[in-house]
């Protein structure tokens, strides 16, 4: 069975692009799991529910890698879970990733590292911007 996973970071964002791509890939709407959560969080309600429903020969499909994991360790943990369950994994925007081959696993590891680096760069820029604002007299409050 095909399952899809979509994630947005904030409620002001929309799932439309991801959901449309998953449906075009053959995922039934009832099999699409969605979270509104930071990609840095490994535990997400819908992702955890999806993982609990997977059975041998199922396939998990995501639109982009950073929708399911933003760190190498989290991505590798998910791939390990998929392997143990004998579940396939596809990324629509990176179609050459195939978790059933050694080459595909290698490529997935590299892409996971890039996704983690991108997240770290965003964090660094945010912190630098906040520090600059503080030096300028702004008061930065936590959300």
UniProtKB/TrEMBL annotation:
Mind telling me which Pfam families this protein's record contains? Resolvase
One of the record's GO molecular function terms: DNA binding
GO biological process: one example: DNA integration
Coiled coil stretches, renumbered: none
Q: What's the domain of life for this entry?
A: Bacteria
> InterPro entries from the entry?
Resolv_N, Resolvase-like_N_sf, SSR_resolvase
Q: Which UniProt keywords apply?
A: DNA integration, DNA invertase, DNA recombination, DNA-binding
Resolvase/invertase-type recombinase catalytic domain location, by residue? 1-137
**Which PANTHER family does UniProt cross-reference here?**
DNA-INVERTASE FROM LAMBDOID PROPHAGE (PTHR30461), SERINE RECOMBINASE PINE-RELATED (PTHR30461:SF2)
To which protein family does this belong? Belongs to the site-specific recombinase resolvase family.
* Protein name in UniProt: Resolvase, N terminal domain
Say which species the protein is native to: Aquimarina amphilecti
